[in-house]
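Severity: low
Component: inverse-folding endpoint
Summary: output formatting inconsistent between runs
Steps to reproduce: submit the following C-alpha cells with default settings.
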C-alpha cells in the first residue's frame, strides 16, 4: 500500500512539474524574443530594470528552475531535492504574500510615487521621440492598447505628440488624439480587474501550497520506506 501511494505521488509530482517546466520555458522564450526584437524605453525610470522583457525572463527562470527541482526530486526520489523544492516554494509564497500586503497597506504612497515616475519616464520618452524608428517605447504600447495619451492628458507631450496617441485622421493635418491620460486609465483598468487579479493570486498560492504538501508527503513516504539519499 505504501509503495503504491509513493508511486502515485511520484508520478503526480513528475507530471505537474513537467507541465510547469514547459510553461516556464515558454515564458522564458517569450522574454528572450521581446528583448531581442524590441528595444524598449521604460515607463518608469526607477524600475527600468523591471521592464516587461526582464520580468518575463525572471519569471521564466524561476518557474523552470523550481519545477525542474521538483521533477528531478520526485523522479529520483531524492529527499534533498524535495526539501529544496519545498523551501523554494515556501520562500516564493512568503514573498508573494508580503508584496500583496505592502501593496494594500501603502496603496496611496505607491500611487503617488508611480505618478511621479511616470512623468519622468514620459520626459525621457519625449527626448527619444525623434528616434522612434529605432526605439519602441513602452509608452507607444500602453497608449495604443489602452487608448490613452500622456500621464494626465495629451498636453503632457507638448508639441511633439507621438502617433500612438492618435485614434482618427492620423495622416491629416489635424489628427484626433486620445484626451484621457494613461494614469487614470491604468487605475481604472486595475480596479476593474481587481477581482480577477485577486483570484489569480489566490489560485497561484493554492498551487504552491499543494506543491509543498505533495513534496513533503513524498519526502515523508521516502523516509518511512527506509530509502537512503539518492545522489
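Observed output (run 2 of 3):
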Amino acid at each position: 500500500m505504501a509503495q503504491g501511494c509513493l508511486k502515485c505521488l511520484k508520478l503526480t509530482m513528475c507530471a505537474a512539474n513537467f507541465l510547469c517546466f514547459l510553461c516556464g520555458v515558454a515564458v522564458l522564450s517569450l522574454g528572450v524574443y521581446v528583448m531581442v526584437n524590441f528595444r524598449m524605453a521604460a515607463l518608469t525610470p526607477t524600475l527600468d530594470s523591471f521592464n516587461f522583457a526582464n520580468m518575463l525572463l525572471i519569471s521564466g527562470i524561476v518557474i523552470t528552475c523550481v519545477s525542474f527541482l521538483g521533477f528531478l526530486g520526485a523522479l529520483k526520489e531524492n529527499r534533498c531535492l524535495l526539501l529544496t523544492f519545498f523551501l523554494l516554494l515556501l520562500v516564493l509564497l512568503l514573498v508573494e504574500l508580503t508584496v500583496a500586503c505592502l501593496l494594500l497597506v501603502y496603496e496611496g504612497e505607491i500611487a503617488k510615487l508611480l505618478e511621479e515616475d511616470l512623468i519622468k519616464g514620459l520626459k525621457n520618452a519625449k527626448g527619444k521621440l525623434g528616434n522612434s524608428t529605432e526605439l519602441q517605447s513602452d509608452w507607444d504600447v500602453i497608449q495604443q492598447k489602452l487608448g490613452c495619451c500622456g500621464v494626465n492628458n495629451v498636453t503632457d507631450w507638448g508639441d511633439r505628440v507621438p502617433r500612438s496617441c492618435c485614434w482618427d485622421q492620423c495622416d491629416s493635418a489635424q489628427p484626433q488624439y486620445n484626451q484621457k491620460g494613461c494614469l487614470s486609465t491604468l487605475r481604472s483598468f486595475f480596479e476593474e480587474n481587481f477581482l480577477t487579479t485577486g483570484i489569480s493570486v489566490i489560485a497561484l498560492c493554492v498551487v504552491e501550497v499543494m506543491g509543498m504538501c505533495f513534496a513533503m508527503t513524498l519526502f515523508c513516504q521516502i523516509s518511512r520506506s527506509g530509502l537512503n539519499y539518492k545522489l
